[in-house]
Amino acid sequence: MATFSFVQPSTTDEALAALRLGEPGETMIVAGGTDVLFGLEGRRIPLKRVVSLRHLPWKTLSWAGESLRIGSTLPLRTLERDPDLRRRIPGLWQAVRAVGSVALRHRATLGGNLVRSSPASDLIPILLALDSEVDIIGMEGERSLPVDQFVRASRTTALGSGELIRSVAIPEARASAFLWQRVRPANDISQVGVAVAYSPSRKGWRIAVGGVVPRPVLLPQAERLLSGPFPGAAELRAAAQEASMRVPFATDRRATEEYRRQLVATLLQRAVRAAGSHPSSPGVP
Amino acid sequence: MTASPARLTVNAVPVDLTPVPVDERLLDTVRWRLGLKGTKDGCRTGDCGACTVLIDGRSVLSCLTLTHEFAGASVTTVEGLEGDPTAARVRAAFEMEGALQCGYCTPGFVVALTSLLKELGAEASAEELTEDLGGNLCRCTGYTAIVRAVRRVHEEMP
Q1: Which of A61, B14, B99, B107 has the smallest count of CB within 10 Å of its CB?
Q2: How many CA atoms lie within 13 Å of A64's alpha carbon, on the beta-carbon side?
Q3: Does domain B7-80 have CATH number 3.10.20.30?
Q4: Which residues of A touch B115 (CB under 8 A)?
Q5: CB spacing of B1 vs A2 below 8 angstroms
């Protein structure tokens, strides 16, 4: 039987203080708690305390003009049910819906998903395609990092030991889509996920792919092959071909490298068409 | 720090958490400590939905929940939905459509669908309800009768 203590800070200062208790490795930080609780048994370093972020006032969601800021501990189901999300950032809505089940999304959080940093994350590709930034708070102050610099590999991020993600900032609403392929459609992990978003300010596409080792990636070479918001069939095929050659896929128990390369080519074309035909797309009255 | 009261309310009955080990899962607290065997132990990894309960009205997987994390909260198990009119309609629809064989997954479906109906209300389509039950697995029925039961509940929504 484990004998750790349960710490439930209700302010940011209390949370940052709790992270400094004890020796490295003794503390487990829990946001939604849907993943890390599996690690309670068989730990190399005995667990001394669990710090739950559930009581922090970070379950926020705020639109400011075209931008959206999402609190790191907001349950994904609350984000999914935001009345504007589906219309304004359809790709993010689709990606959130792809995570686990409703009961899981009542607990799971964006901050937890980012720190878990799974190569198969359904959220990281769309956050990349939306040029999202991670807002980090620590004893030394606050800093922001693009998701592209935050995520490094499975369970490995740029987050320091005394730091927490406070929120995620999405700079602008974008016509977007997230498509995935799985062995089973419900409650499974994606073999490949493709996120695309058209930036009205940059006048260009962002394309990101998950199901990739060691982490989801942006594909700038494929992005540059798409000339405008409504690319033709030839451009789409060229971008799909480029993406399928470029991505460092691997073979694992979910899919072979070859299958993933075929999937990404197909899903990329479908995703760009889906994003381009969405009512919120640029040019659609 | 939040001085969490070391108690929990389960089906409107206060439960003292003092004797509950800090690493005990809510699933084990309700099944073995409180004897509420309607909540089923399926996978213990959050994949099957058989252990679904409500915490403060929202469906959660009790196998992924440490009991002490929700000190002060209100838990409702399938037993606690006995007098609930929405749950009564869900149970009746499952019965009318024969939407179960071994019955092990049924309490999870009843809790999850009741919670969805309350959360989404009249705006929910039958397709959305069905899709949102994707976290509940059934190994007997092939889901056909369960989907029929969902449609029946949806058609009979007040």
Answers
A1: B14
A2: 6
A3: yes
A4: 102
A5: no
Fold assignment, B83-155: DNA polymerase; domain 1 (1.10.150)
Which residue does chain B place closest to A4, by CA atoms? Answer: B22
Taking alpha carbons only, the member of B111, B102, B114 closest to residue B142 is B102
Q: Judge: A106–B23 Cβ closer than 8 Å, yes or no.
A: no
* Shortest CA distance from A17: residue in chain B: B1
Delimit the CATH 3.30.465.10 region(s) of chain A: 61-170
pLDDT digit string, tens, across residues A124-146: 999 999 999 999 999 999 999 99
The complex's ipTM works out to: 0.95
Residue B68, chain A, CB below 8 Å: the answer is: yes
pLDDT digits (tens, 9 = 90+) for A12-58: 999 999 999 988 889 999 999 888 776 676 677 788 999 999 999 99
Cβ-nearest to B23 among A1, A77, A107: A1
The CATH label, of 3.30.465.10, 3.30.70.270, 3.40.930.10, 1.10.3470.10, for the domain at A61-170 is: 3.30.465.10
Within 10 angstroms of residue A86's Cβ, the number of other Cβ atoms is 17
Q: Which residues contact A285 (CB under 8 A, 6 or more apart)?
A: none
Q: Which of B4, B66, B116 sits opposite A37 (nearest CB)?
A: B66
Pair A196, A230: CB distance under 8 Å = no
Name the residue ranges covered by the structural domains of chain B.
7-80, 83-155
Q: How far apart are CA A197 and CA A228, in angstroms?
A: 12
CA distance A104 to A132: 24
pTM: 0.95
Q: What is the CATH number of domain A175-276?
A: 3.30.390.50
